[in-house]
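Working notes for the structural subgroup meeting. M.R. asked for a predicted model of this chain before we commit to crystallization trials. I am recording the input and output together here so anyone reviewing the notebook later can reproduce the run.

Input as submitted:
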Amino acid sequence: MADQFDLLVLGSRVRHARRRAGVTLAEVSEAVNRPAPYLSQLETGKVEPKLRLLGELAEILGTTTADFLSPDPPNRRAFLEISLARAQSDPAYQALGLPHLKPSAKVANDVLEHLVALWNELSHQNSQPQQEPSTEARFADIARSANIALRAEMRERANHYPEIEAIAAQALADANYPGTGPISERVLTELVANQGFTIERVRAMPPTARSITDTRDKIIFIPDRGGLKIREARSVVLQTLGHFALEHNDTSDFAEYLRQRIESNYFAAAILAPEGPAVDFLREAQADDDISVEDLKEIFYISYEMAAHRFTNLATRHLSIPCHFLRTDREGVINKAYENDGIRFPAAPDGGLEGQRVPRQWGSRQAWNASGSFLLHSQFTVTNGGEYFCTTYIETETDRWPHAITLGTPAEHAHYFRGSDTLRKEYARDREIEPDPALVNEWKDITWPSAAERSHVLSALPPSDLEFSPFPGIDLLDVYRFLERQRRSRRP
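Returned structure, recorded in token form:
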């Protein structure tokens, strides 16, 4: 695993997550049954952890293994400390005969900035031979390639996995699911018991952990009802159970890790919204031209995001409706995406979508500005590749920041959906999304914005809407428009 990413970055991200959670090394040591000195070495990049240990740490610290495996340091200070550590390990630096400098808390960021900048310039002037791609870059390529390959497979299969549907259906039958409506507490308990597990709701769990599984005594621990809502608890339990029902094995391969996550989440959705009754319900709604993800959410008592995902599993296979799905933040930055309807998402040169920003005319961004922004927002959007209908829901029932869930389809299928009688239509062809050159020229050389703290760190800061922006993560067009409004307001 160490040849795939940089242990310094990994250790830095673990230490950052621990400090953010307010947990000591001793507390983590007790929770994962590992010596505190070993964990200290892990945080300083001196030992290589197993993927299972990273999963345990992620649960305790309230984050994800993917977060730990991100190739980017958690903040600027960490980047500078890692850069200095790499510099001091370079033979050319050691040849200077300088004593080792430990960047303690007393060493200001400005000092580190100067040291790192000076070393970078010295390395450049010495014309060091071109090095192989960094471990961070190699791991980023692995992660992005895995995401791209899995997304292509999902599109090829119309996001429908009959083998998982069959396992879920058998598990429901064995648990005596009645065949309609949401699964009851009794059915959930039997599902878990049939896999040899029990569920225990406890108060003494680490406050940052959603669930903890004891694989020896076969217990899935989740917070009591005061710490985890019933709807969320069912998803957490079933996502955990999915790994065992699907006979997943431990893996250090990141692509396989992602596949297992996708499959376990699919299993949970197939249990909570079973294929048979869900398809019957959707077909009836289709016949009435009244499909609504909101209804699917309510009838099976699942989250809106899971209902939208579940629709993509079933729509093309059973209803012959192609569709697309987006999860974005307030700025339109993509966190998750799927399509088999031909819509062209903004993508990096290698085809990666995560971290890219959708045009401001798309429903994923328009919904935040609409009147009553926490209601459903429906619109038609004209793109270079055709016209699409979509509905966006602002998800607030989460322990993290709100995000937008968008489900869309080509305009010719729009009549099947509730809300398709909307008069809202936005134009997002290339000629409409091109920035106003006069506005850009007016403000580009006299603007210095500072990027807001991001709600997620899984992907790099998104690019600006303007090419060659010196401010990654900043929507410069919004900044320019803000400055233009301020200037106009000051005019007599």
